[in-house]
Design a protein that fits this description.
Distance between the termini of chain B: 92 Å
Strand order of the largest sheet of chain A: 3-4-5-6
Radius of gyration of chain A: 16 Å
Distance between the termini of chain A: 47 Å
CATH class of chain A: Alpha Beta
Number of strands of chain B: 51
Largest interface: A-B, 32 and 31 residues
Shape of chain A: globular
Structural class of chain A: alpha+beta
Helix content of chain B: 10-25%
Strand content of chain A: 25-35%
Largest sheet of chain A: 4 strands, antiparallel
CATH superfamily of the domain at 167-294 and 428-507 in chain B: FAD/NAD(P)-binding domain
Number of domains of chain A: 1
CATH architecture of the domain at 167-294 and 428-507 in chain B: 3-Layer(bba) Sandwich
CATH class of the domain at 167-294 and 428-507 in chain B: Alpha Beta
CATH topology of chain A: Folate-binding fold
CATH topology of the domain at 167-294 and 428-507 in chain B: FAD/NAD(P)-binding domain
Number of strands of chain A: 6
Order of helices and strands of chain A: EEEHEEEHH
Oligomer: heterodimer
Chain lengths: 119, 1015
């Protein structure tokens, strides 16, 4: 069982957390011109690399805050924990971010912050 | 009178307490042992070796080891109310009144019908079951019964109830020392002196490890065990140290998460009520030192599994620790120096050592000369090529042996005996290291796999590290513990390494720790086969099985392990693993290092299911949630159903009423007069903050931005894939404050999903979510008389009831209780959902029932609620939907906003596959026979007479009898259902019943215009 350092609560057992899967999947803006196939890259396709993986986790049975972490899927070593909305800071984490196929996907290109509807 | 302990020694040097006799029963016969005995040592004291039959061939098997490495002596303990199988006799401490029996035999140990398997051994090779029962598959059903009876280890109680209590304990420490032998004690002492919080755990009944058995050496000028006793005393006195005995470190997992199984009361005849039987420790250790010692490996020759054949170290342990001489006419078979000390011990204990057979050609240690001087026959360059006997070893063949070519060079000499002790060298116990994916290195000097110490989190020392010599092991323990503490010091201010640490000095015999690896001794005789040369005693795997596996093309060590079952199951290859790899390597003409090794899996020894479950059984298995009105429901005869963790009132049967009659009465009363439902379990989320409207607009398919204050709106929530996730009514309390309701079962999931969106997707939105499910009690009042009842209950302004439009909310008082009343309906009747602070729930409910009496108010449960909503065609998320259903499939196009720029699931709903005309769509079904109720989950077909496999049209999601329509009604999800209204479908039934015929209709069966609802 992993020991995970929640950015708010500190070291806790893995059983207190839930894993939210791959991090840095940007949501395409709704008035995009994506084909169904390009949109499915956002909706369905998830990475499963051997090596460094950037994941989202939530401290479900604790403070309930979401955060990102970089984990080595071979050794289970957690390389860094960093806030949602930010980029990894370690060299390994940065490399993993850049190397991900998603950086070159149409779905990611079609994402930007949602427009406000209610004033 | 119990039988005499014929094999108990006069000398009183061991750890047993001669002052205290212990009575126990084995296989129905009474025996006497001493306090401190294990079942194995007590049986051996009576000269009993035979304690079980083997797993596959039902061969007679005897006590083979002296601890957790025992593969044979698995026995069953009978308690007053249950029985426990597969306990190791070598670990089971006897107590007054212990009742044990042997396993795997029928009808008795000495005569076992299934031992004929042994004569047919040539028909039971490796992979036998795979080969024999591959074809035809249908016959497996026939074979299975017989195989299951013949195979398997032990039997569980017929009555599965376990009366004992097990507990879990959570702990943290700076250092765990696994193993309480010399190295472990020294490491713990060094660490403890630095102030670190240390736990030292050992599976045996006392700390001391091998020192409990071998007292042939001195440490710091004192007998070794005196040194150990001093260290143990010191450790026990220190507040920062916990010494755990009878505690197996069973599993080592990521980040030093450790599972330890502590046997608390199993060895006591009187088990104190406040103590659990076992305690499962869930430990997080900063660092771990593995001082788990080593296990001797057997030598592999024909007949090596006969009772009376034992590991040399075990034989010595029984002499020194338990004062038991296991055999009086002994042969010693070895490839190393260590077994000579066993020969010496047997000789000194009064036994007759017939011969020491040493595979090595010309060993030169002092001990060999010593033995020869005592007149003991030592034959070097020889081997025991076979052992003979029926229920016990009676004789052996000894021959001059050429280890280079693996064959005897001269004819064998026959020698009678009643005991054989063998030693094939030592295997470090690397299981815990291996569980963490630690690598193993083959060491040619000691002929064993030892751990590669590369991790920062754990390290192996002493015998577990291949350092077998005591002096070196103590020095290693001191150095390694110091460096571990130095690392901890940099992380923890409370720990400071003591400057001067003395390494204990030893005086011990010079011993050559290099065994001569001979993995398989060939008899050289055509009539003696290696089909009885056992490698894995517990799984009945032989040298012949391994060779056969190679011939059949299995060359990887992992494949051979699985094909032959060597090293698997509860034993985890403790005595067998390295021998199996050795034989495999020889057969493949490879080195052992090239052949590689398999991975040891947790747990180290079997951990009982009871310990794993702990207190999380029975009513503590899952928490039950009840509403504040629960006591009223109980008092009024409600039957309950579980909805998630909630216990909800299902229906309230009166005397003589059956289920359907009750439902019909409750439904009828609600449609004609008034009904009251406990709706407190509805999920409730308080949504607050300046961006609340914007947020709700993005998570619901319909528009919430325009919702006026005081108004309610039904909303449908999708996941990003466009599938229906939840539904509920949300009300605007003020400009920036909403009150959201969710399904009872979905509340936690909805809150988590909304939190996720706010924290990860829309961090810019200022919205706060609070779960208020348990802060509000809700009574749902509906029916034609609902308005009158509410009016009669209002404590202040009764006129608010008159001006109370559909889908609005009033913040008011009822019976003096502050209340939020919503005019919303799930029954299709005029209805009010009355929300009061939770603690007033029972008061509100009782008051409503009292006032409502003259208006014929009836309490109804969840089943009547289902019927009422189904009559109206209202869906239940999770019943009509299953994560593959879109709003369009539910014919709810009206709820999906076309104007909104964005909401969760919007783009997915535009995918081409979402508009396939053949998607399953929600329709109603009316059966031809009004009294026939279709089973929920049944499948519908167009033509019941078509050939198999029948093409399915869809399934029935809800089905009830409607007392208002006097007709059964159902909802179904059918392919292209929206365009099939008016068509006839058939629902095939099980058990040869006629298919049910039904017509596809609109799912709204009652009051299609909704006049009753709006009032």
């Amino acid at each position: 069982m992993l020991k995970i350092k929640c950015p708010i609560c500190g070291n806790r057992d893995e059983t207190e957390f839930s894993c939210g899967g791959e991090a840095h999947i940007a949501r395409p803006l709704v008035d995009n011109k994506l084909t169904d196939k390009a949109f499915s890259e956002y909706l369905f396709m998830r990475d499963n690399p051997k090596g460094i993986f950037l994941e989202r986790w939530c401290h479900t049975s604790g403070c309930r805050r979401w955060f990102n972490l970089a984990r080595d899927t071979i050794s289970h070593e957690i390389i860094e924990v960093y806030p949602i909305g930010q980029m990894p800071k370690t060299a390994k984490g940065k490399k993993s971010y850049q190397a991900n196929w998603r950086r070159r996907s149409k779905a990611e290109a079609a994402s930007k912050p949602a427009k406000r509807i209610v004033k | 009178m119990s039988p005499k302990q014929s094999h108990r020694l006069r000398a009183n040097s061991g750890a047993i307490n001669r002052q205290k006799s212990v009575q126990f029963t084995f296989d129905g016969k009474k025996y006497t042992g001493f306090e401190g005995d294990t079942l194995a040592s007590a049986l051996l004291a009576h000269g009993m070796h035979l304690v079980g039959r083997s797993f596959k061939y039902h061969r007679p098997r005897g006590i083979f080891g002296c601890g957790s490495e025992e593969p044979n002596a698995l026995i069953r303990v009978i308690h007053p109310s249950n029985a426990e199988p597969n306990l190791r006799a070598t670990q089971l401490e006897i107590y007054d009144g212990l009742v044990a029996e042997s396993q795997n035999r029928f009808p008795s140990l000495k005569i076992d019908f299934l031992s004929v398997n042994s004569f047919f051994a040539r028909f039971f090779p490796a992979g036998f079951y795979y080969k024999t029962f591959m074809w035809p598959a249908s016959l497996w059903m026939f074979y299975e019964k017989f195989i299951r009876q013949a195979a398997g280890l032990g039997r569980v109680s017929k009555d599965h109830h376990d009366p004992d209590r097990y507990e879990h304990k959570y702990a943290h420490c700076d250092l765990l020392v696994a193993g309480g032998g010399a190295s472990g004690l020294q490491a713990a002492l060094v660490a403890a002196n630095s102030g670190a919080r240390v736990i030292i755990a050992d599976e045996q009944s006392e700390l001391g490890g091998w020192l409990l058995t071998d007292n042939n050496f001195n440490i710091d000028q004192k007998p070794a065990m005196d040194w150990a006793s001093n260290v143990i005393k010191k450790l026990r006195s220190m507040p920062n140290v916990s010494c755990l005995v009878r505690t197996t470190v069973a599993a080592s997992m990521d980040d030093n998460f450790i599972l330890m199984a502590e046997r608390v009361t199993e060895h006591l005849s009187i088990k104190e009520a406040h103590l659990p039987k076992q305690r499962l420790w869930k430990l997080r250790a900063a660092k771990v030192i593995l001082a788990t010692g080593a296990i001797e490996r057997p030598l592999i020759f024909s007949g090596n599994d006969l009772p009376g054949i034992m590991l040399s170290s075990a034989a010595r342990s029984y002499i020194f620790r338990y004062d038991v001489l296991a055999g009086t006419r002994a042969i010693i078979f070895t490839n190393n120096d260590d077994a000579y000390y066993t020969a010496l011990a047997i000789h000194q204990a009064g036994g007759f050592v017939r011969c020491v057979v040493d595979l090595r050609d010309n060993p030169k240690s002092q001990i060999i000369t010593t033995l020869r001087k005592l007149g003991i026959d030592v034959r070097t360059g020889h081997a025991v090529t076979a052992a003979h006997g029926t229920l016990h070893v009676a004789s052996v063949d000894i021959a001059k042996y050429d280890t280079e070519n693996g064959a005897p060079t001269l004819d064998a000499v026959h020698m009678d005996c009643n005991f054989l002790a063998m030693s094939g060298g030592l295997n470090p116990v690397v299981h815990l290291h291996s569980q963490r994916k630690g690598r193993l290195i083959w060491d040619d000097r000691t002929s064993c796999y030892r751990p590669e110490n590369k991790s920062d989190e754990w390290v192996s020392i002493g015998s577990a590290n291949g350092t077998f010599q005591l002096g070196r092991a103590l020095s290693e323990a001191t150095k390694v513990a110091s460096s571990v503490i130095t690392k901890l010091t940099s992380e923890n201010k409370g720990i400071m390494l003591q400057e001067t640490i003395a390494i204990p000095q030893t005086e011990e015999n010079k011993q050559n720790w290099t065994p001569l690896p001979v993995w398989l001794v060939q008899s050289g005789q055509p009539y003696i086969s290696d089909k009885t040369a056992f490698v894995d005693f517990q799984n009945d795997a032989t040298a012949a099985d391994i060779k056969l596996a190679v011939r059949e093309g299995y060359h990887s060590v992992e494949h051979v392990k699985r094909y032959t079952t060597t090293g698997m199951a509860t034993d985890q290859g403790k005595t067998s693993n390295i021998n199996a790899i050795g034989i495999l390597a020889n057969t493949l003409n490879k080195s052992i290092a090239e052949t590689g090794t398999t991975t040891f899996r947790p747990p180290y020894t079997p951990t009982s299911i009871g310990a794993i479950a702990g207190r999380n059984i029975g009513s503590l298995f899952a928490p039950v949630r009840t509403t504040r009105m629960h006591s009223w429901h109980k008092a009024n005869g409600a039957t309950f159903e579980h909805v998630g963790q909630w216990m909800r009132a299902w229906y309230y049967p009166r005397e003589e009423e059956d289920f359907q009659q009750t439902i019909n009465r409750e439904v009828h009363a609600t449609r004609h007069y008034a009904g009251l439902l406990d709706a407190s379990t509805l999920g409730k989320i308080d949504v607050k903050g300046p961006d609340s409207a914007e947020f709700l607009n993005r998570v619901y398919t319909n528009n919430f931005a325009t919702l006026p204050i005081g108004k309610s709106r039904y909303g449908l929530m999708l996941k990003e894939d466009g599938m229906v996730f939840d539904d509920g009514v949300t009300t605007r309390l003020s400009e920036d404050h909403f009150y959201m309701t969710t399904t009872s079962g979905g509340a936690a999931g909805v809150l988590a999903w909304l939190e996720e969106l706010l924290q990860t997707e829309w961090q810019d939105l200022k919205v706060y979510l609070t779960s208020v499910t348990e802060q509000w009690s809700v009574a749902s009042l509906s029916g034609p008389n609902a308005k009158s009842i509410l009016k009669a209950c209002m404590s202040e302004d009764k006129t608010v009831v008159d001006d109370f439009p559909f889908m609005t909310m009033k913040d008011t008082f009822i019976a003096g209780i502050p209340a939020r009343i919503f005019r919303i309906s799930f029954t299709g009747e005029m209805a009010f959902e009355i929300n009061v602070p939770a603690r007033y729930g029972l008061a509100l409910w009782s008051y409503l029932m009292r006032v409502g009496k003259e208006f014929k108010l009836t309490a109804y449960g969840t089943e009547a609620m289902h019927v009422l909503r189904a009559e109206k065609g209202f869906i239940i998320v999770g019943q009509e939907t299953d994560g593959t259903v879109t709003p369009y499939d539910l014919d709810m196009h009206w709820i999906v906003s076309k104007k909104k720029a964005d909401f969760i699931g919007k783009r997915a709903l535009e995918r081409s596959s979402m508009n396939e005309p053949q998607r399953k769509q929600l329709v109603g079904l009316l059966t031809d026979d009004p009294n026939k109720i279709i089973p929920e989950g049944a499948h519908a077909v167009l033509d019941p007479d078509q050939k198999m496999p029948i093409s399915m049209l869809g399934h029935v999601s809800s089905s009830y009898y409607s007392p208002n329509l006097k007709h059964s009604i159902a909802m179904a999800l059918l392919k292209g259902g929206l365009n099939r209204k008016g068509q006839t479908v058939y629902i095939p039934m099980l058990d040869g019943q006629e298919p049910i015929k039904a017509k596809i209709v609109d799912p709204i069966f009652f009051d299609k215009q909704g006049d009753r609802l709006r009032g």
